[in-house]
Amino acid sequence: MTDFETMREQIRQQDGDAFPSKAFTALVLKPAYDNAKQNLLGSMMEVNRAQLIMLREQGLLTQQEALSIEKGLREIDLHALEHGEYTGKYEDLFFEVEGKLLELCGDPAGSLHMARSRNDMGVTMYRMVLRRRLAGVMEALHGFIAKVNALAKEHEKTIMVAITHTQQAQVCTLGHYLLAACQILDRDFDRLRHAYDTVNRSAMGACAITTTGFPISRERMAQLLGFDGYILNSYDAIGGGDYLGEAASALELCAIDAGRIVQDLMLWAGQEYNGIRAADPYVQISSIMPQKRNPVSIEHLRSLLSSVSGQCTTLLNMLHNTPYGDIVDTEDDAQPFLWNACDTLQKCYALWGNVMGTLSVNKEVLLERARNGFAAITELADTLVREEAIPFRKAHGVAAKVARTLSAQGRSLTSLTAEEMAQIYADVTGKTLTTPFETITGCLKPEHFVAIRNVPGGCGPEAMAAMFAEEEKHRECRAAFLQKRKDAENAAQDMQRAGLEAIVQNSRG
């Protein structure tokens, strides 16, 4: 026996000589089975019930066959399936459920699989599970936005310094910053909603790839399962995995957007910045340094949001090298990454909302920082344009020299004197300053800077009121969509119950 033949025999003895091999079972079949029993069993049974109702309504099952299958579906031990272990007796959970139905009702159970395949059934189940998880993320995001919006209203007038390039830029308010976050989060919700609409299409009736010669109703299957409709082209129904890509892209952008805001919170919570203080339930005390209040809830949000992004990227990479065609088997490996991303993101929104809803804000520190820095000096240039009728670039030069002069001496804007202002103005423009110094000092106050910025989108009171009103419209739209989704799901459940009851009632009649 050659070395190769010896090696092959060893592999056969270790891994078996019939499908499935032990290695394939450990890597693929058992994990897929465990995922299916935890995540897909409920959807599988919904599809079975809907298939039964549709086949009977289309006259493809006799009344007696339908009644027998209905009884078997009721009697199947779902608890045992949920807690079962993979033994290899059945290739996967689908065949195990089919086997149990055959045991319960005999040959009629075999007709339940008429005019369908594991391909269209698998894609449909995956879509059902994914839409529920996306809905859970959207529910959590909706609640989170409401908390951020409430915090924005509470701090509509809380003055702070906006940062660009990690440097103090201009004066704004915390409410203005938080409303900006709300708008980003609103767009995240819209992207999730669009992904949900793409996902919420039934593949049932596509069968393996080309539909069937039986006169089935794809539309009725979609109705019974709570879908908005069905995927028209049967090849697309079983091969078009872009619904996964769209969901992954939306979820990944949600995580990226959230992570950027969390980064700011980490900065503000630091002792040097001292802008916010997380509530006690969300901080951890050092085991050796008793003075420390580590904002661990925010820290873990940062890392977990990165994990969401990573899981979505993994799925997109898996989709990238999957040929166009039947992707059900590939999805066994890919779907859990998307499920985990949804679950983690949903929990992140819940935790983050509680952190935001219990924050303490150091208003005095933020205001003092705005007064002692140079973040309001843009308004000096604007005021000189209005009062002295000089070009903005020239006015900008005056303001820049004021900033350089005071900064070099370690002074703040509040220490500027009338004589210094007049001299700098003359040096830059060659003209005499006519604007009263009271006007100059007034325009440098952070409160004034904020109050006059009422152009749409600004941090002034009128602009903020308009944005709060717009956010209320977004809230109503989000709530309406989520309610519509719940109503559709409930309606589908009602239709299934009515369809099964009709089968039972007809037998009694």
In brief, what are we looking at here?
By secondary structure, this protein is mainly alpha-helical.
Description of the molecule:
This protein is mostly helical. Helix content is 69%, strand content 3%. The chain has 20 helices and four strands. It has helices at 3-15, 22-39, 41-57, 63-75, 78-82, 93-105, 118-154, 174-199, 218-224, 234-239, 242-269, 296-320, 328-357, 363-372, 378-388, 392-408, 418-429, 437-443, 446-451, 461-508; strands at residues 159-164, 167-173, 276-277, 360-361. The protein has a two-stranded antiparallel ribbon with strand order 1-2. Strands 3-4 form a two-stranded antiparallel sheet. Strand 1 (159-164) and strand 2 (167-173) form a beta hairpin. The protein is elongated, with a radius of gyration of 32 Å. It starts with a helix and ends with a helix. The mean pLDDT is 92.
Q: Oligomeric form of this entry?
A: single chain
Mean of residue pLDDT values:
92
**Percent in strands:** under 5%
In which range does the helix fraction lie? Answer: 55-70%
C-alpha geometry = elongated
Number of strands: 4
Count of separate DSSP helical elements: 20
How would you spell out the order of helices and strands?
A: HHHHHHHEEHHHHEHHEHHHHHHH
Using only C-alpha atoms, the radius of gyration works out to 32 Å
